[in-house]
Amino acid sequence: MDWDKLRVFHAVAEAGSFTHAGEALNLSQSAVSRQISGLESSLAVKLFHRHARGLMLTEQGEELFHTVHNVYGKLAMAEARIVDAKESPKGPLTITTTVAFGSIWLTPRIKEFVSLYPDIDVSLVLANTELDLSMREADAAIRMTPPTQLDLIQRHLMTMNYRVYAAPEYIKERGRPKTTSDLEDHRIIVYGEETTPPVGNPNWLLEAGARVGSIRQPVLRVNSIYGIYRAVQSGLGIAALPEYMSYEGRNLVEILPEVRGPSLNVYFVYPEELRNAKRIGVLRDFLVLKMSGGVA
Question: For residues 31 and 40, what is the distance between their CA atoms, to the nearest angstrom?
Fold first, then answer.
């Protein structure tokens, strides 16, 4: 099988159309179509079902795609090891983490990391869904839950608590609760019911100090912790937030400091194949240093 044709096949399978694959490969739609037709002819099988909404892999196409996809992953790993055989850390480094942690804590520190290691080409992918590190969708991850994949290495970076915050504007308008029972008279912002945050009882503030049989109603439900953070900053209400947000975010005041919510563990995660990669090592050491005294 011709590798150029396999490369085009992989792009088409991922894009779902000749047009989008051609854009990714900088080829015309007709050139992509010819490559796929040639591959199908050489294999004497159909690799795609063609219909009005796009392309769908046949059973044989699915089998070929999985094989080619795995080969791509292994080639990327080999490239990474070759790059890291040189003396200084260099080469591409894609880091993924959650939108909130990446936006509020990680991004402001990337300038220092890039200054220390100018030959590392850093990319950040901020997403609340986990990328597949084994398939090199990213090189390393900062996660709020331990990895479930056995072929990933994890390093516990720190544990942080949820604390209770409000904006000065809110406190000026509504006053500061002195005990959790005072929360009955305040506006509380919580997670939406459809979200799955990395703590067992994310909306514990609705129950803290509540009277028996009483159910507090939130002023707002939001499906992301970053959205809750921004709503608190706006002065809308009170919320429980991971403590790193108060170190980074302006316009946040801790209230009820004696109250501690669930704890959150932060992990540095990367594939086994990158264990000896220099750029992974310097990133790990950088994160450990920055978090060694907390997240400030």
Answer: 14
